[in-house]
Amino acid sequence: FVKELLEKKYPRVQPIITPRFGPSCTEDLLCALGDLAQARDLHVQSHISENEEEVKLVENLFPAYQNYTELYDKNKLLTSKTVMAHACYLSEEELKLFSLRGAAISHCPNSNFSMRSGVLNVQKVLKHNVKLGLGTDVAGGYSASMLDAIRRTMMASNSLQINKVNEAGLTLEEAFRLATLGGSQALGLDDMIGNFEVGKEFDALLINTKASDSPFDLFSADNFEDTLQKFLYLGDDRNISEVYVAGKQVVPFSSSV
User: Whole-angstrom Cα distance, residue 221 to residue 30?
Assistant: First the structure.
């Protein structure tokens, strides 16, 4: 009943099964949660392969499973409604299983750098056609800003290029896509939000690049790409004049909304 009520009144708000992560659960608990998720067609979120010690711990705790991903998959927790945070150390076989199940990854580079846990190879994930969005994971990082997530995604990608893991890094446009349409795809909401396609709900920021207290300057020679790049790398809430969610203005807040 609660699920149907939420879907009717707040279609973006969904109940979600949230095992902390494999090592904090028994096999019986994971199995029961998977059965519940399947029976009620619920979303699932958890962590996977955030650091190497975690991966080794899962191997020791659950020796019957071939890898960390199989632990979730065999217990019905890896579905097209699943989002797993981090995923820094997934193997080729695990990424193939993610793609097969339609499960998504939330890339949280601020947390990964802050805890020195690992660096997700975003390009490798995308080559396996795995859904990928950006996350903040402020329990491990220090910023809830999606602008920060974009910036740290670029730094993570650059570090992989510097260390010859990848021949080239992500472009800023690719990171921006991960923060917008990529996130909506990971959450299974890309038919409703994520870009400005006709028929989708209007989620938008109105950016004032010439705000009096703007943290960056514009020059006459700047084109649109230059301006966007300056905002994504240097901008903050001082540049955000208005915020719209599903077509309704929520910043500045109006009592008429």
Answer: 57
Query: First CA to last CA across the chain, in angstroms?
Result: 27
The pair of three-digit structure tokens given for residue 221, joined into one six-digit string:
């020679």
DSSP state of 101: H
Pairwise CA distance, residues 78 & 191, whole Å = 21
For the entire predicted model, the pTM comes to 0.94
Rg value, the chain, Cα: 20
Q: What is the pLDDT of residues 83-142, one digit of tens each?
A: 999 999 999 999 999 999 999 999 999 999 999 999 999 999 999 999 999 999 988 999
Residue recorded with tokens 């890896």: 78
Question: In angstroms, how far is CA 164 from the centroid of its own chain?
Answer: 25
Yes or no: say if 3 and 42 are a contact pair by the CB < 8 Å rule: yes
String of DSSP letters for 156-184: HHHHHHHTTSSSS---HHHHHHIIIIIHH
d(CA 55, CA 49): 6
Contacts of 226 (CB under 8 A, 6+ apart): none
Stretch (H or E) spanning 249: strand 248-251
- Report the DSSP pairing between strands 104-107 and 82-86: parallel
CA 143 to each of CA 55, 124, 146: distance values in angstroms, whole numbers, following the listed order: 26, 25, 8
* 3-state SS class at 86: strand
